[in-house]
Amino acid sequence: MVMLVRKMIRDMLENKLAYIACIIVMALGLMTYSSMSILMENLLSAKDNFYSNYEMADAFSKVQSMPENQLNTFEKIEGIESVEGVLKQDIKVYKPEDSKTGYLRVNTYDISKDRRLNDVLLKEGYSLTENGRLIWIGEKYFKANNLKIDDNIDLIIAGKVQSFKIAGYVISPEYVYATRNQADIFPDSEHFDIAYISENLFEKLTGQNGVVTDVSFKFKEGYDYDELKPEIESKLKNYGLVKLVPLKDQSSNFMLDSELEQLINSSKSMPILFLGISSFILYIMLKRLTEMQRSQIGILKAMGYSSGQILFHYLSYALTIGLIGGILGGILGTWMSRYFTDIYKTFFSFPILMNSHTYKYSLYGILISLFFSGFAGFQGAKRILKLTPSMAMSPEAPKKAKRSSLEKVKLIWSQFTMQGRMAVRNISRSKGRSAFTVLGLMFSFSLMVVAWSYNDIVDVLIFDQFSEVKLYDMKVSYLNIQPSENVENYLYNIDGVYYVENLIELPVQIKNGVNEKTTVVIGLNNDSKMYRVLDKDGKEVNLKEDGIYLSENIANQLEVSIGDVLRVENPISDEFLLLELAGIIPQYIGSNGYANISYLENKTGFNNLTTTSYLKIDDKKQKSIRKELDKSPFVGVIEVPDESKAKINDLLDSFGYMNYVMAIISVIVGFAIVYNSSVISLSERQREFASLRVLGMSVKEVLQIVTFEQWVLGFISIILGIPLSIAMMEGVSVSYQTDVYSFPAVIGDNAFVYAVLGMIVFVVLSQINVKRKIKKLDIVEVLKERE
Fold first, then answer.
1. What is the mean pLDDT of the chain?
2. What share of the chain is helix, strand, coil (3-state, %, to 5)?
3. Which residues contact 539 (CB under 8 A, 6 or more apart)?
4. Which parts of 641-784 fold into alpha helices (H)?
5. d(Cα 138, Cα 192) in Å, to the nearest integer?
């Protein structure tokens, strides 16, 4: 057996680049599997522990106002274990020197309780008290703003600046992923987070004594949301129900579960793709190797080696590749999981999110790679079992040669050089290998197209949203519904405000049969100068004065089409509305409904009322305008699109490296496929190429036969890869669609150009190595007659 091991090592070293390329492709797949699996386990473990230890609720609701003493009526509902009600409000942080307004979502905290639903983990600091003006701040805001325990922080509550002492920083299972609204794709820890103030103190400061705005429910074992929802909903409607959602749809948990789902999908699909490619390469290589070493197999059998021993010898080639690829993939995956875990810590807040240091996925990866490579090796070498020593030592009968179909087209065939004709004939006679090469190159080409489309996706996702849709300079949202005339008078009296456009943002629950969705319907003027609703072609939608428009995401979730009649409920009106779906529009940030404001006013009775204003302002006076708005007791959130765009752009740029990673992976895969295909072709045709060399052909002319074949297959791959790229981009768009954002299926203007250049790169790299092998051909040895 030692002799066979030496033979294996010698054979692999002779064609080391092909085997190395195969190892790299396999290692990339297993790296994806192990890193994504470890990260998924880390997040799941952190989530389950946090939710369990700090009593994460099973359902969440928001109401306009509800007496706190009515909470016990919900505990009488069969199936409800406990109920928790708190007062929540987004409060402005008073920082005159900061050009961007910061907000804290202040929650009341009942210090008399030992346990609460959605409880709080105090990471550092001391307890809140009834008398002192103490506040707990979210950990990420605390650290992002370089705050310290006992520092003072000023908040604008009811139009007055109130000063608090920071008693500590906290995290809560309810805010693992803390964003202010659906327009925020990523957390902005420097300008938004959570905070907790003692219940009595916050009620005194806001004047909202004995009321709650958010109610959470914990269910008894054996009961679920759908079963309890009707009774809970009917009771909450008495207090102006804004929304009621199960845990799976709670905003923070939804983002976390969406990320976990993406990790699960990535850990399954990507490894299979890479392992499938590497396994097919191994299959072809071993099939050709056993054909080339037919006489050696006969000699080994004549020397007494059994078919099983020889089969295992050739299987060891594949198993060695699988073992090395598995070990390398496991090491890289474990290392990458630490890097990914650190990235996720910047977005998600857990008590503990550590790399699990488990090597089980590395072991699983090795077993998976051994299975794939072993199966491929067996399929490639199993024909050995049928050979007797005499058969093996006899040359294989030559295959019947046929003319290619292209030879019948004289006009085209006559244009080919001799090398070109030889290449085309070889393609038609090696249909299996040619098809594999085309499929592999199609995948590589499509992957590069998707990778190089990233910047264009960002442009549509972010910049079109802010340059084509949101045309206002500042958005002002109010704490309560305000008379439009009063708001306009107030805003126009602020120095620097040029133009005011009022609108209604109405929280609603839209139902279609068993499907329902909580969202916000925006009522706009048809001639709005501040906000444009665009269709797929980028043309402005004329909002009819009859019907409602929905984003694609909501329409898909409700399973509705244009013309369907929807049941729309809102927290202010006791009666529900029946609205016809007038149109479906693309929306890449957030998910909203839209309606003509006149139509919405007629349906709801909110005549001359507003919840939001869009402003055109003097940019030089933005800071003074903000200061003036901060003084108002009815102004809630202030948004400046330029600031949001800059923040989102910075965050997306941090993920831009994936663009280059995908491009590099696609080049590696493409090179591995082209190089192995050319090496296999070269090994099959050594006698043919040696004969051509003897007849006077130069190395360059012989190389032209192989390169012409590669360019033909590459061209076919590009043509077929274009529709595959479009389909792949559509798949990416669908898989990354959430309530917060969705990726447009946009292919970049230069993506195809870069992908073609990438194809040229790995074909040229492959040719360089093939040329070196042609130069090393031992013409005398190859042309020796076999007995």
1. 82
2. 55, 20, 25
3. none
4. 641-654, 657-684, 686-694, 699-735, 751-775, 779-782
5. 9
Per residue in 165-208, pLDDT tens?
999 999 999 999 988 776 666 788 888 999 999 999 998 888 88
Q: How far apart are CA 642 and CA 470, in angstroms?
A: 10
Q: Pairing between strand 80-86 and 211-219? A: antiparallel
* DSSP result, 496-551: TEEEEEEEEEEEEEEEETTEEEEEEEEEE-TT-SSB--B-TTSPBP---SSSEEEE
- Distance (Å, rounded) from C-alpha 725 to C-alpha 720? 9
| Unique residue bearing structure tokens 């359902």 | 59
- The residue that leads in pLDDT, 480 or 97, is 480
Percentage of the chain modeled with pLDDT above 70: 88
Instruction: Mention every residue, 6+ apart, whose C-beta is less than 8 A from residue 303.
Output: none
Quote the CA–CA distance of 25 and 37 in Å, as a whole number: 19
Question: How many other CB atoms sit within 10 Å of the CB of residue 435?
Answer: 12
Residues 6 or more apart from 622 whose CB is under 8 A from it?
A: 99, 473, 474, 496, 640
Three-class SS string for 574-619? CCCEEEEEEEEECCCECCEEEEEHHHHHHHHCCCCEEEEEEEEECH
Q: How far is CA 398 from CA 125, 395, 401, 723, 734, in A?
A: 83, 9, 9, 39, 50
The amino acid that residue 369 corresponds to is: S
Longest dimension (CA), the chain: 104
Long-range pairs for 459-467 at CB < 8 Å and ≥24 separation?
A: 460/588, 460/744, 460/746, 461/588, 461/589, 461/652, 461/741, 461/743, 461/744, 462/589, 462/645, 462/648, 462/649, 462/652, 463/645, 463/649, 464/538, 465/588, 465/589, 466/641, 466/642, 466/644, 466/645
Q: How far is CA 183 from CA 264, 288, 338, 342, 590, in A?
A: 26, 57, 30, 25, 5
Find, among 332, 371, 313, 319, the residue nearest to 24 by Cα. 332
Residue of 640, 614, 612 lying closest to 626 (CA atoms)? 640
| Strand 548-551 with 577-585, pairing | parallel
785: pLDDT strictly greater than 60: no
DSSP state of 22: H
> In terms of DSSP bridges, do strands 134-138 and 192-198 run parallel, antiparallel, or are they unpaired?
antiparallel
Q: How far apart are CA 614 and CA 301, in angstroms?
A: 86
φ and ψ at residue 578, rounded to 5 degrees: -110, 110
Q: Taking the CA atoms of 394, 299, 372 and 661 in sequence, report the sign of the dihedral they define.
A: negative
Tokens 């916050």 belong to 202
pTM over 0.85: no
* Residue 406 DSSP one-character state: G
C-alpha distance from residue 757 to each of 715, 724, 746, 753, 770 (Å): 12, 18, 20, 6, 20
pLDDT at 61: 92
Residue entry with tokens 């082209």: 674
**Cβ-based neighbours of 135, under 8 Å, separated by 6 or more:** 128, 153, 164, 165, 166, 167, 195, 196, 197
In single-letter form, the type of residue at position 109 comes to: Y
Q: Please, which residues bridge with residue 157 across strands? A: 160
Helix (H, G, I), strand (E, B) or coil at 154: strand
Segment holding 356, helix H or strand E:
none
User: At which residue do the structure tokens 């060695």 appear?
Assistant: 320
Alpha carbons 701 and 286: distance in angstroms, whole number: 28
Q: How many CA atoms lie within 13 A of 199 on its CB side?
A: 15
Distances (CA, A) of 414 to 417, 503, 692, 704: 8, 71, 21, 17
Beta strand spans in 180-237 (E): 192-198, 211-219
Which pair of tokens denotes residue 193? 């987070």
